[in-house]
Amino acid sequence: MAMAAAASPSKILIPPHRASAATAAASTSCDSLRLLCAPRGRRQRPRGLVARPAPRRPFFFSPRAVSDSKSSQTCLDPDASTSVLGIILGGGAGTRLYPLTKKRAKPAVPLGANYRLIDIPVSNCLNSNISKIYVLTQFNSASLNRHLSRAYGSNIGGYKNEGFVEVLAAQQSPDNPDWFQGTADAVRQYLWLFEEHNVMEYLILAGDHLYRMDYEKFIQAHRETDADITVAALPMDEERATAFGLMKIDEEGRIIEFAEKPKGEQLKAMMVDTTILGLDDARAKEMPYIASMGIYVISKHVMLQLLREQFPGANDFGSEVIPGATSTGMRVQAYLYDGYWEDIGTIEAFYNANLGITKKPIPDFSFYDRSAPIYTQPRHLPPSKVLDADVTDSVIGEGCVIKNCKIHHSVVGLRSCISEGAIIEDTLLMGADYYEVKSNRCNMLLAK
Prior knowledge:
Layout: E1 11-13, E2 36-37, E3 43-44, H1 80-83, E4 84-89, E5 110-111, E6 115-116, H2 119-127, E7 132-137, H3 142-151, E8 164-169, H4 183-189, H5 191-194, E9 201-206, E10 209-211, H6 215-224, E11 229-236, H7 238-241, E12 245-249, E13 255-260, H8 265-268, H9 281-286, E14 289-299, H10 300-310, H11 317-327, E15 332-336, E16 341-343, H12 347-355, E17 385-387, E18 390-392, E19 395-396, E20 401-403, E21 406-408, E22 411-412, E23 417-418, E24 423-425, E25 428-431, H13 441-447
Parallel strand pairs: 4-7, 4-9, 7-8, 11-15, 17-20, 18-21, 19-22, 20-23, 21-24, 22-25
Antiparallel strand pairs: 1-25, 2-3, 5-6, 9-14, 10-16, 11-14, 12-13, 12-14
């Protein structure tokens, strides 16, 4: 029986010199889901989410693969669920990811066979006890909005069961006749809503990054240093540093200078002692630069002051608001994150990030961290069926039928049907929204 009224063509990313006779159909995202920790002891399951048990024998992970997960208890006072508002930026037009973004926003692209990229920052928030979350969208947002509404119910628990994940689309109004002009402008246009929440800080996140981070530690550092703004910083070696916006800090970790993609003497001038932020001597020698991750904790009164009074015309946080705050004497601190982080901004980065989860013995990013699971939309698909196939070093999504073929070092997305004789290597099959209807290939494969 057909499972949907319409078929969606398969989407495949295969290096030209690889993969022969691959027939596939698959797209979007779902995997190991777990209970959300309530703020004070009692565990609650976020509505609309499904919990699945983790394997009894966990994989071997490097610290960077599961970096900054809940390894130790963080005690925020007041609690993050009552005092922090999460704001996730849906990203721009995604031209560097075209054609993947032809009909969807960057945060809606598939990830790891079962997920969408937006699941990463939302899950990080939920695992960090931040349950009040807004997602600001503008470009091709229909698919993203649909996924969020299905994955995260209108009430997801949190303090007094008042958590939410709510989409805020760009809109025109008498006061704001233009669409979002940048990250800061997007937040400014909805300040009237954000300031109604009785919170201490706003947590500004990007919707197109792959990483795992405990935001409670981030927020705790912000409060302990009495900062106005805290910027998440990634340690960099000289080779990578030229592609990022770099920051310079003083002996207290306070940011004093910014440089966008510096080279030559300007690059050398941005070297810092990263032991100040917690790196050991050996790693600090390898990583003498710090780059902004585009993740910020901003105190509420500071945000209102910056966007309304001091920089009412600024459109971007990274290039205008944050450097401007530093120049006015505000305390802008750096917070070191020394874990796996990838900006999914290009086709190459998207491909490498997906294939990176198949690496052995240590994946670049793990979806199997029991202390900080990644949530997604429950799809109620059957388990994948593998018949006389040779599958090695690969990740297979739900609802797939794989028969008499060879798959190596690949990611196979949802509802993929792979026929006899196919050889798939170093390949990303993105999946399909629906099973095919006319040929109903999956049922035909099972009937043979």
